[in-house]
Amino acid sequence: MKCNVPGRHSLFWKLACLLVAFCLLMIWLSWSWGRYMEQRNQFLSDDARRTLTHYAAEAEQAWQLRQNAGIDDWLQAMHQREKGWVGVIGGDLQSLSNQSLSDKEIERLTFLRGLDWPIHKKGRPWMRVPFPGDPSTGSLVIELPERFLPGQYRVFWRVITNGVIPGLFTLLLCVGLYRLLVVPLNHLRAQANAWRADQLSVRLSSRTTNRTDELGELGRAFDHMSERLQSTVALQQQLLRDLSHELRTPLSRLRVASESEQGLESLRERIGREVDGMQRLVEDTLQLAWLDTERTRLPDEAIQVQALWEMLTENACYESCWPNGQLLCSVDASCWVRGHLDTLAQALENMLRNAIRHSPKGGIVLLGGRRDGEYWHLWLEDQGGGVAQADLERIFLPFTRLDGSRPGDGGFGLGLSIARNAVQRQGGQLWAENTGSGLRMNMRLIADESQVSDSACASKTAPALASLQTQ
């Protein structure tokens, strides 16, 4: 099974970076805040250390002034200041006051704690604070006052550390995920709801469509789909309006003919002609609508343009009574293109009929072409005088007829629209330009790069051309 690696702008990497950053933040918070809380809950505060060190300095001063008597007076004053046991001992763990230590007190002296030691056990431990001036002279021993015990708010800080702070950071993570994922999805949902309300002109904001991840691609696809829906609906509505307008004229002529007193033969001929015209109009309109809505690429095959032209000119000469010498082709047998035979034949036939219809009597229609890289550039020229420069694009719009701009009439203005849609569906292009003496229709078609010989290809394509000719 093939594994598709996400691109560098993929949403996967954004989510991965966000989650990794969140995990690293939580690890850093647990380590740094944990150490801080450990200091607060297991070690003496700076205020407690300063107070106990100050007591030791007072005891040292009392000892230097009056020795044992000074220690006795100081201890008596300390009993009024602090509740709990207080003593002063020398380097040999003997009391520096005149009152000797009891056996229980001597036993407790073996479990003394320093100011920098952690306080783990419950109760009030005995602390040993050396004299600041000369630690070897003696030390203050004091049962830690209740107010100096660390961890008095341990439960509270555990709740803050293990509950409130992770909850806040998780909330921030949810906000980031919401802005990253849910907000653009809400925009897409709003656009879908707008479509449901027939508001096809609604588009997504640039903040969504300019994203480089999958959601940005989805947003651009939504906008493209909205544009396609809007253009398709507009085309369908325009086609219905134009079709209904075009059908009114033959229907009116049919009504006049049915109410007239002309003979049966002439009436039948008139009705047949109008019905044939309406049938062509409906078929061309349906085909144009299908070509515009059906966006899948047509299956292609190798097509020899010269053979296709010969088949089309044979039919055109029969329909228009033009001699074959007025429909020229300067494209040789080496011109092979890739395309859908039926569709390309219809496009070229529509352009050929249009050129014949608008060319003067005795005019020349020429098919030429040249190789242009991976494409063949083909053109069909007539001598009809051309059209105004501003109308070169309008002639490809459905039901567009430039009355008076070119000699001749007939048709419904759908041929060139069908031709352009047919060529575009095969990966080609179709545009018009004036030559000074007429109009040139330019086609850009994909060249056939197969290694099949001309004769083999001709044998393959000949049955298909023959079937087209019989249709």
How would you characterize this protein structure?
The two termini are 48 Å apart. The chain is rod-shaped. A hairpin with a 2-residue loop joins strand 7 and strand 8 (375-381). The protein has helices at residues 11-42, 46-81, 103-108, 154-196, 206-209, 214-259, 264-293, 305-320, 341-358, 415-424, 454-470; strands at 86-89, 126-130, 139-143, 301-304, 327-329, 336-339, 365-372, 375-381, 429-434, 439-446. It folds into four domains: 11-40 and 154-194, no CATH class; 44-148, Beta-Lactamase; 218-293, Helix Hairpins (Orthogonal Bundle); 301-470, Heat Shock Protein 90 (2-Layer Sandwich). It has eleven helices and ten strands. By secondary structure, it is of the alpha+beta class. The chain has a five-stranded mixed β-sheet with strand order 5-7-8-10-9. A three-stranded antiparallel β-sheet has the order 1-3-2, with helices on one face. The relative contact order is 0.07.
CATH superfamily caption of the largest domain: Histidine kinase-like ATPase, C-terminal domain
CATH topology of the largest domain, what is it called?
Heat Shock Protein 90
Q: Please give the domain count.
A: 4
Mean pLDDT: 80
Care to count the β-strands? 10
Strand composition percent? 5-15%
Summarize the structure.
The protein has about 475 residues and is α+β, with helices and mostly antiparallel strands.
Features:
471 residues; alpha+beta; Beta-Lactamase; Helix Hairpins; 4 domains; five-stranded mixed sheet; three-stranded antiparallel sheet; 11 helices; 10 strands
